[in-house]
Amino acid sequence: MKKALLIGLMSTSLLSYSQSSVQELNVPNAQEVKVNVSAVKIIDNEYTPGEVVTKKATVVKRKKAVNYDYIDLGNTYYDLQTNSSPGRRIVLHSDGTVSAVWTTSPDAGTGYPNRGSGYNHYDGTNWLTGRDNKIETSGRTGWPSIMLLDDGSEMTIAHESNTGGFVTSRNSAKGNTSFTSSGAILDDLSEPNTNRVPIWNRSGTSNGKIHIISNYWASESNGVPVVTLNGVVSPTTYSRWDVNGDTADIAHAILPGYDSTLFAGGGGDSYAIDVRDSIVAILLGGLGDPLSLWKSTDNGETWTYTDVDSLPYKGERAPAQLLLSGDTVLTNDGSVDVMIDPTGKVHAFWGLGRVLGAEPDGDDTTGFSFFPGQSQIRHWKEGDASTRIAGSGFDLDQDGQYNVTNETFNGLDANGNVPSNLLSATRTGSTSIVTMPSASADENGNLFVVYSAPVENQLHFLNANFRDIMVSYSTDGGETWRGPQNLTQDGTQECNFPCAAKIANDYLHVMWQQDATPGTFLQNHSASAGSHPNELATMKYAAIPVADIINDVIGNDVRTAGVDEVKPAEVFVVSQNQPNPFNGTSEVLVYLRTSSKVTLTVTDILGNVLNRGDLGLMNAGNHKLTIDANGLSSGMYFYTIATPEHQVTKRMQVK
After folding, report:
1. Longest dimension (CA), the chain
2. Residues 601, 539 share a domain
3. 635 and 502 housed in the same domain
4. Are 542 and 572 in a shared domain?
5. Is the peptide bond before 319 cis (omega within 30 degrees of 0)?
6. FRET pair for 265, CA 20 to 30 Å: which of 120, 417, 489, 648?
7. What letter would DSSP give residue 266?
8. Dihedral over Cα of 515, 530, 452, 483: its sign
9. 173, 153 in Cβ contact below 8 A?
10. What is the pLDDT of residues 132-158, one digit of tens each?
11. Is residue 222 classed as helix, strand or coil in its secondary structure?
12. Phi, psi angles (nearest 5°) of residue 526
């Protein structure tokens, strides 16, 4: 099947994915191994044909007349919630209350020194308000997991990013916003005078134990050595924390069979964990790596191993073997999730990836190239001999093709610049275009998976597709899947980093991050192109009725009027001012599509105009504007940058 190249908005080529029938993979339950990702490169002009999940109708369903209530959990300037796998960020409690966590930063200071864990709680009637600050009392933390302990208190676990290990924060009861934080636990002091740095936890709890998987970060230039265990570089390890004893009874253990014949190296966030009663399930993946499942039925004492996807090339030799094969291989993109259903059966989900062996680079290290244009979420359940498709992108205009722009699946180049001939580059890490599955199950046996996917024809003016949060479902335990349906259906905002509570009741409980620009500032901002400003993002939540999902009520129509015509002179990017808070002066980056007259207005919180400047006619491209706060007292203000037809207002703080 050959690629079709279309001409679309702004005369930029689109990658077209022709739809075809589901292709099954053979997955024998045998011991497996893993590959080297030391020299990953990207190929933009190839693709795997997209598969479409079985739908009950070929007609695009219209969105409900009344939208679901989307709750603002909190705001954050730190806009990267995961490198790949969502983790455990939201919990549905047995009484119907809900708790959620995320990585937050109340400001955009260099390095985000105030970064930590945001927290919110629904008490059955209301959510908390004003939840922009972290719950930890000190340190720079992130990547939190949340869980309810046996005594009714809540605990979050977030990594200490500077020295490694994990900070626990505990309240007295769910919903209590007063948390007591620990010093770093599991910080791995096994090597005297060596700063080993385990971070990126994924955690779950049951029976008085907290089960934790994490990965070692290394930076020899910063004095953080590479950790190698069983021949695996920067390995993923398992720990178990005893809540009552407040101590580790297992610390950074290697799972049985985890060695260099299975994995050449670990990867941050390319793993998932679930815990139910005495069952613990751990799924490890990674782009170019096999999907490996460990299951324990005795609270983490003993483990059985299952190879989920039967990747033919594994371990240290995999890149060379892949190169010799001369063929592409389907794998996972590093975004994985694992779920234990109410019957105790384990389910695995992942974004489909595709790799190709690459010639040795300058240091003679054989690597592989990958194809980011994959548009499938795959599923496997315990006892299966094959995998199946559980999610995909959606052909919104029903023309038989899923059209996504080059900007949507490209990343910045090695120098941090947007690739030539593109207006932006918005891929998250090395993930595929359809990615980041997060699974849930209700007590009736219905299964759900939410995930991130670009929306066809919904384009930012820098030509990247906006993402929305999709959902697929199964009413037969995962044998067949139906979808996708679009949960968020915004069309003018980027909805990404979805996470669903593992347990659903009458509602599927979902959270995600939303902002105005595709991609993230942390991974996709190019100073030269102004491609992603450092803007405020909002963490969102919705309770979606399960009956609406199963009855296919939600549909996929994004703004039924279709794509609004965008006038070039009306749209532009305005960044958050830097520094902020500030005194003296601060700078704002403005990107204009075409030349236009521009004005800058500063107001106080009451709307009184304090200063207005006519900046004259500005050419298309990037411009740095200076805001002068001399003479202003400390406090909150707003600045508005406007053309004759359009304006953007952001807040700033003078100190």
Report:
1. 72
2. no
3. no
4. no
5. no
6. 417
7. -
8. positive
9. yes
10. 999 998 889 999 999 999 999 999 999
11. helix
12. -110, 120
